[in-house]
Amino acid sequence: MSDVSEILHYMKSLRKGFDKSLFESKIEELCDVVMIAGLNSDDFHSLFTVWLNLSIPIKNWTSLGLCIVPQEIVGQKSVEYALRWLLEINKSCNDFPRIAFLLDWLTAFLDVSPHSMEEKKQFLELLAIFQSTVMQGLSVITSFLAKFLPHWNEKDYFMQILALIEWLHVESHEQVRVILDTLTKVYCRAHPIQQCAILNSVTKAYTNLVYASTRKRHFFLNVQPPENSYTEMIELVAYKINEICSKGLQTNPEDMRVMLGSVSSLRRCVRMELLVCGPVVSTPALLTVALPLISTSALAIDMIADLLLMYKKIFSAIKAKYGRRDEKDIDKMKMLKAFTSDIVSCFQEQFITNRSEGIIFSNIQPNIIKKLTYLVPDADSKLSFRNHVAFAPYTSMRHEQMIDEIDHKSLFDAKIAQAFVHLGRFVELSMPKFSK
């Protein structure tokens, strides 16, 4: 019987038109040799590269590569070669079975593998780079995340897991739901900095899905995914982003990192929708818009103004493109109009008086309003943007004129419009009398 090196030498010497019967017999002989003697690391890598470039049946490779070969002999060079091969072969539909098997086999090292944590981290990083290179989530990686995350200790491979989440497989709807449900629980238990990292990755997953929905060609798929696959997945991820933001703001309402992270996430989602002229899916949760208006961050208020301006552009683009708006868009427009009214009321010193016109303060109970007006005389004025603590560093005047004597227009022209571009544009469009 030949040894492994002789059989591998034979395989490497094959040329076009080789004897297929002899080749099959050599494969069977190799399986017998491996079962008796095993493979060393170098021989395994040689066999691995041969298998990827020749049509060795998967049933034989299962014996050679998955069941018989000890995992500790699978070196980093084999993993790197596999990923390079995947990048080169992705256009060939004939290789789909081998591609799927290979990816499944690659992600099968992670918990039971004897490799060190650093080696596992490097492997996960390579998978993340691979997904970002082809700009597509792969089914086997999404499947791996759905199985791994419910049992994750929420510490090991933290950044690598978040990088993998940025590209989700569009047809793995239930697995993505498991991933996002688990991440939501992890987010609620995490430190604010980790919360920002988690939300950032889920936001990237959303923007990547929106982008992928506009692509005409996808890799590693026998057919183009149906349009409703993207619609359902995009809606699911948008819903989970809103849920994550709401829970984060409920548990840490005073943490500026969490608030700015939530508003920034929503802006990025809406900006991607604007770029592709897609439907409005990312509508803000109430707290995401409400908290900035009563926070000490002028930047957050400026970001909310930018958000509302982008929504206005999207709705205008949809009407121009399709000539009409559907019922969902009309409902969303009503909600965003109410948000706009809340900001206008803060400018016009009608925070309390006109609360029924908006949405943020409309449900405040009458007894609370009565107590507020008792404790804070002239509450409309004191809670307006003119006296807002967030704008205090920008609106304080270093001269003898009292702040109460400065009208809104002078204040706006002198300070706010120059410092906050988005808020200035918002006022110009929504309240022209303040900008003229």
Blueprint (SSEs and pairs):
Layout (H helix, E strand, L loop, with lengths): L3 H9 L7 H18 L3 H13 L4 H10 L8 H14 L6 H12 L9 H18 L4 H10 L9 H8 L7 H17 L2 H21 L14 H25 L4 H21 L9 H8 L4 H25 L4 H21 L18 H10 L3 H4 L9 H4 L12 H12 L1 H10 L1 H4 L1
Helix pairs in contact: 1-3, 3-5, 5-7, 6-8, 7-9, 8-10, 9-11, 10-11, 10-12, 11-12, 11-13, 12-13, 12-14, 13-14, 13-15, 15-16, 15-21, 20-21
Kindly describe this structure.
One of its GO terms (cellular component) is nucleus. This protein has 436 residues and is mainly α. The chain has one domain. It has helices spanning 4-12, 20-37, 41-53, 58-67, 76-89, 96-107, 117-134, 139-148, 158-165, 173-189, 192-212, 227-251, 256-276, 286-293, 298-322, 327-347, 366-375, 379-382, 392-395, 408-419, 421-430, 432-435. α10 packs antiparallel against α11 (192-212), α13 (256-276) runs parallel beside α15 (298-322) and α15 runs antiparallel to α16 (327-347). The longest helix has 25 residues, at 227-251. The protein is elongated. The N and C termini lie far apart (94 Å).
Helical content band: 55-70%
* Residue fraction in strands: under 5%
Order of helices and strands: HHHHHHHHHHHHHHHHHHHHHH
Shape: elongated
The tally of structural domains comes to 1
| CA-CA gap between termini | 94 Å
Structural class: mainly alpha
- How large, in whole angstroms, is the Cα Rg? 29 Å
Main location: nucleus
InterPro entries: CENP-I
Subcellular location: Chromosome, Centromere; Nucleus
Keywords: Centromere, Chromosome, Nucleus
Give me a quick take on this structure.
67% of the residues lie in helices and 0% in strands.
